[in-house]
Amino acid sequence: MSQTDTVNRRIVLAARPRGLPVPEDFRLEQVEVPEPADGQVLLRTAFLSLDPYMRNLMDEVGPVYAPRVELGAPMVGATVSRVIASRHPRFREGELVLGNAGWQDFALSDGSDLLAVDGIDPPSLALGGLGMTGFTAYVGLLDIGAPKPGDTVVVAAASGAVGAVVGQIARLKGARVVGICGGEEKCRYVVDELGFDACLDRHEPELAARLAVACPDGIDVYFENVGGEVFDAVLPLLNIGARVPVCGIIAHYNDRTLRDGPDRLPLLQSTLLQKRIRMQGFVILDHYAERFEAFRRDMLVWLRDRQVLLREDRVDGLEKAPAAFIGLLQGRNFGKLLVRVAET
Amino acid sequence: MSQTDTVNRRIVLAARPRGLPVPEDFRLEQVEVPEPADGQVLLRTAFLSLDPYMRNLMDEVGPVYAPRVELGAPMVGATVSRVIASRHPRFREGELVLGNAGWQDFALSDGSDLLAVDGIDPPSLALGGLGMTGFTAYVGLLDIGAPKPGDTVVVAAASGAVGAVVGQIARLKGARVVGICGGEEKCRYVVDELGFDACLDRHEPELAARLAVACPDGIDVYFENVGGEVFDAVLPLLNIGARVPVCGIIAHYNDRTLRDGPDRLPLLQSTLLQKRIRMQGFVILDHYAERFEAFRRDMLVWLRDRQVLLREDRVDGLEKAPAAFIGLLQGRNFGKLLVRVAET
Question: Residue limits of the Enoyl reductase (ER) domain (chains A, B) (predicted)?
C-alpha cells in the first residue's frame, strides 16, 4: 500500500506486545481521508517522530504519562504536517505545523495542539533538536543535572536523539563528558564529531571497569535514559552531591516482570543517602509553559554557531514505522529517528 | 564503675557488629582524665546524644559520611559538655558547650568544633529540637520536601526525634500529616499531643492497605527515615511530582547482605520517572553554614509559641548507652534519645 491523496493509511495497535514488540503487534489499515468540520484543519503528515516513550503507551497496565493507545486505534506520535485544508481561522492551507497526527497519512485537528513550524530548516528539526528530544535534553540536564565546569557528566545512549544533545550542552557548560553507546561507529561519531571527551561501547565486556577508568574523578551527573546494566555500572561511581535526572529507562520498557534478585532497592536508597544524591524523574510535557521559550532561544544560537550538531536517522515510508520503532527499542537507530511519510 | 572526677570512663568499640549490635560489641574502659594543653579545653560530658547514624560508623566497609570508629576507639557522638578547665581564649571554665566528646566522661577539644549553648533551656535541646535532629527535620522537609498547603505528608518514625519535628513543621505549613510509628501509645501521642492528622501503627497487619485509606489523595511528600516495609507501603501511593527526602533507612542499617529478590531497583526508577518524583538523600552536616541560622530563628519561635513540642527520652548513666543505643535501632525509644552522663 503506497501513499495516495485519497486514502488514509494508518498503523494501528493490533495486539498488546509481550516484551519487545513484533511486527504483528501493528496493522496497516486503509480508511477514508476525513473531512474537516468547521473549526478544524486537515493535516497531511510529512514527518513522524518515533520515540521510546511510545512503548509504554502500548501496554494495558502500568503507569503511563500520556493516554494509552487502545487496541485498534492508530499509534500516537508527534508529527510535522502540512495543512491541506483549513476551516480554522488561525491556520492557512499550505503551512507546516507541529502536531500529533500519529502514525497515519492524514488527520484532523481543532488547532489546539498545533504550533507553527516557522523558519525551522529542515522542518523535521521541530521534532528533534528544536523539539521534544532537544527540549528533554535541555531541561533534564540544566534544571536537574545542573552541571558545573569541571564536573564529569555521563550520558547513556549518547548518539541518540536526547543523549547527543545532553552531551553537547554539558560540554558547552564546561563539563567533562563521557558517553556510552552501542557500537564502535557510534562511539567514534560521539567523540570525533560531537566532541565528547570519551565514549564507551556498551557491547564490549567489562563496562563497569571501563567506566571507572574513564571517570577517574567519579560521576557528578548521570543523565539516565537507559537503566539496566549501564545504571549498574554508574551507581558505584556517583560522587557526593551527584544529580541523576531520569528521562527514560529503555532497558526496562519491555520487561514483563521484575528481574531476579537480590532486591537492590534498599541499595539504591542507601546510595542516595550516603552520597546525598538527587535522583529525579521528569516528563517533558510538564515543562513547556515555563521553559520552552528559553530552550528555543538557546538552541537556535547553538545550532547557528554549530556548537550543537544534530543527526537524523530518517526512514522513508509510513509502512516502515513498525520495524523502525522495534529497531529503536533495540538501539539500532543512529540519531533522531524519523519517518518521512510524505515530501514536505 | 560509677562516675568520678578522677577517672575517665569511656565506651569503646570492642567488636564490629554483625547485624544488630550486641552488648559485647561495646566495652567500658577507665583511663586517666586527660590534661589540656595550651589552646585546649577539658570537657566533662553532661548529655550524650544517641542517633541511628552511629550504627554505620561501626562498620568496617560500606559508605559512611563521617569518619568510622576504629576498633578500641571511643564511640563518637555529639554532646553537651561543661568546660571544666580552659587553656583556650574563647572558652571559660564553667560554660556549657555543644561538642563532640563521644561516649565518655571527659574529652579534650581545641575549640574548633565547639559552640556555646547560650540560653537554651534545657541545654539538652541543643542536641535535639534545637540541634542536629531538629535541623535535620527542618532542612529535609522544607528544602527538599517543600510541602504546600493541602499536601499529604507522610512521616515514618513519627514519634522519634526527627519525625516528630517533621510532622509538626509540615502541619505549620498547612499540610495534612500522616505518621507511622511503632505502637499504640506512640500513635496516640503523635495525634493527640503533636496534632498529626492520623497515625498508623506499623506493628499492626496490612500497613499498605491502611496507609492507602489514610491517604485518599495519595502522598505528596514522604520523609524517609526508615525504609523497609514502610517504604514499600508508601511507594505505590506517591503522587505525580512527589518529593522524597531521604534522611535515613534505619530498617537496613543492620543488613549484612542484600535481601532476596526480585530486584526492585528498576521498579523504583520507573516510578520516579512516571511520577516525576524527586528523591534526594541529604546529610545534615552539609547544611550548617547556609541554613542553621534560619533554623534556629524559626525553631525558637515555634518552641516559644508551643507550635512545636519536643519529647526527650533520657537514660541516666554513661554505662547504659550501649543498651539504649541497641534499643534505638529497634525503635524502643520514645522521643529524642539522650544519655545524661553528669548533672548539668
Answer: 19-339
